[in-house]
C-alpha cells in the first residue's frame, strides 16, 4: 500500500513543480529582442507595408485566417486535430483581432506563440516555424496587417476537451518543441540554398504539413519533410528522394509552386490553397531558392526531368477489369492513354499521385472527386466527380493498382482494406474537395 501512495505523492509533487514552472514563466524562451519595444512610426508602417504584403503571401496567412465565404482576415477556419477542432482567429486590426496590439506583442505572438496577457497560442498556428522569421519581415508583416480593414467578427469557440482546452499547458509543450534559438545562415552553403531554407522552413512552414508528428503533435525533426497525414489527407514526401519519385526536377517544382500545374499534375485540396493564396504570388527568385533547398542544391543548372517510370507488371485479370473501368469512367476526360485534355483534366501518365509511396491520395480523389479549379493565366481544370457510389472497394483496388503500375511504375500493393479505410474517413468537407 505504501508504494502506490509514495508514487501518487511523487506524481503530485512533480505535477505541482511543473505547474509552478509553467506559471512562473520559467519555461518560456523568447527569441524576441528588446529593440521591438520601440513602436514603429506611421511613416515606417507606410514604407514597410508593401513588403509586408509579400511576407503575408509567403507565410500563407490569408488561407488559414479567412473562413470559406467569410470576411478577410477575420478567422473562423476550422482545423481538425487529434484533440478536437481549433478555429483560426481574427487577425484584422479590429478589437476582436490584433487591434491595439503593440509591435512587440505581435513579435511575441508570431515567434514565441504567446499573445498579449500571456495567453498561449495553439500550435495549429505555426509559430514553431515562424520563430525563424527575421525581425525585419515580422515588422513588415505587422505593418501590412495593421493597415488592413478591421473586421468586427467574434472569434469562433474551439472544440477541445479537457485538458487540451487549458492553454497554460502549452508552456510545457513549447519547452519540448519550440526551438531554443533561431537557425543562422550556413556559411558552408550558398546564398541560394540559405534563402531557400528560410523561405521553406520559416516563411512557408512546409514542415508543418509535410513532417510527421509524435504523440504530443510535435514535429519529428529526424523525419523532416518525409510526408505526413493532416486532416485525413496525405502530404507527400518532399525530400529530394520523394520529389524525384514524383517526377519533379527543380525547374518543374518551381513551376508547379508558381502556378499549381506541371507535367506532374495539378495542386489539389490544401495544396491548391497554398498555391492559390501563397506561392503563386511569390517572386520567381524565391520559388527557385525553395526548389534548390528542397533538392539540396547550392546552384541550379538546366537538367532534364527524371525519366518516366517503367510500367510494373500486373496480373492479366486485374488489367482486364481495370481497363474496362477506366474506359467507362475515366478515359473521357483523362484520355484513352492517360494523356489528359488541356484545360479540362490533367494527364495521368506520370502523374505524381500515381508515383507516391502511398496511394491514399489517389484513392480519395476517386472516391470523393475534385472541384473545378482555376489557375494563373486563365488555366482551368474541370470538376472530377466522385465514384464512391459507383465503384466498390474491389473495383477501386483494381483501378488503382493498374494505373499506379502502368503510369506510375508502382508495384500493385493496394488492398481492399486500404480502400475501405480511406472510404471510412471521408467527410463532407473532403467530399467538397476542401
TrEMBL record:
GO terms assigned for molecular function: electron transfer activity; heme binding; iron ion binding; oxidoreductase activity, acting on CH-OH group of donors
Cofactor section: heme c
Residues engaged in binding heme c 3: 330, 333-334
Record's keyword annotation contains Metal-binding: yes
Binding site for heme c 2: 206, 209-210
Binding site for heme c 1: 61, 64-65
Keyword Metal-binding: yes
Keywords linked to the UniProt accession: Heme, Iron, Metal-binding
InterPro entries in alphabetical order: Cyt_c-like_dom (IPR009056), Cyt_c-like_dom_sf (IPR036909), Cytochrome_c-type_DH (IPR051459), Membr-bd_ADH_cyt_c (IPR014353)
Cellular component, GO, one term: membrane
Cofactor binding summary note: Binds 3 heme c groups covalently per subunit.
Domain Cytochrome c: 47-149, 317-407
Pfam families: Cytochrom_C
This protein's name: Cytochrome c, mono-and diheme variants
Origin species: Methylorubrum salsuginis
